[in-house]
Structures are given as C-alpha cells and as structure tokens.
Design a protein that fits this description.
single chain; mainly alpha; Methane Monooxygenase Hydroxylase, Chain G, domain 1; 4 helices; 84% helix; 0% strand; FlgN-like_sf; Flagellar protein FlgN
Length: 145
C-alpha cells in the first residue's frame, strides 16, 4: 500500500473516531444543559472536565487531519475532503461521503448545543445579578450592563 493510500486510510479512521467523540460530546452537552438548569455546580465541574478532554482530543484530531491533507496535497476544509473523496474508487464514494456529512452534522449539533448552553448560562448570570441588585437598591447605579 502506498503512503498516500495509508494516509487516506488513516484520515477515514480518524473521521470515524471523531464522529464517535462528537456523538459523545453532544450527549455531554445535553447533560450540561440539564445541570445548568438545575444549578448543580459540583456535577457541572466534573462534566466540564470531561468536555475539555473531548475538546482537546478533537483539536488534536483536526490538526492531524490538516497535516494529513497537506501531505496528500489537498487543501484543508470541506472542499479538499470532498475533492479527495472524489478520487477514491467509486465503490467507496457513498460510504465516505456519508461519513463526512454525518461528521459535519454531528459537529453542527454540538456547536448549536454549546451556544445554547452559553446563552442559558448568561441568562442565569443576568438573573442572579438582578437579584443581587434588588436586595441592595442603592447599587442600581453600578449594575453591570
């Protein structure tokens, strides 16, 4: 097997692993949402440590994917991936394209869940700040905006 074939095989195996991590990440982000709503800070701290591990793994994997694509002479990003997959034997097109599309879908789901959790946290912080300031009406002037 040539170096290029080995790199493409590694790229696909990494994408399969990334997809599994994105599915797990999405589940953890859903749990994070529930813990935020319940204001369970100790459990949130533990969950956040798990999230950081997954984020670090996915970051390393993205860097490795970028390096593999460079070694293959393919531009990084969706267009490069799709161009590379178009060069594979026709029997593999549907599987690798489905894998890539699902990987993108999983990443987008995680991005949306993460943004929603951020909004939820900001809302809670605003509510708490308003509660703090209502108990001390003289501090309304110093309220954070």
């Amino acid at each position: 097997m040539s170096n290029a074939s080995l790199r493409v095989k590694q790229l696909i195996q990494d994408m399969i692993g990334d997809r599994k991590y994105y599915v797990e990440l999405n589940e953890l982000l859903e749990k994070q949402r529930l813990l935020i709503i319940a204001r369970q800070t100790a459990e949130l701290d533990a969950l956040n440590a798990q999230l950081i591990e997954i984020y670090q793994y996915l970051s390393r994997s993205a860097q490795q994917r970028h390096t593999l694509l460079q070694q293959l002479g393919v531009p990084s990003g969706p267009q490069g991936i799709k161009a590379l997959f178009a060069k594979l034997p026709a029997s593999h097109h549907s599987k690798v394209n489905a894998l890539w599309e699902d990987l993108e879908r999983q990443a987008n789901r995680c991005h949306s869940a993460n943004e929603s959790n951020g909004i939820l946290l900001n809302m809670q912080q605003e509510i708490l700040m308003n509660l703090i300031n209502t108990s001390e009406p003289e501090n309304w002037l110093y309220q954070q905006v």
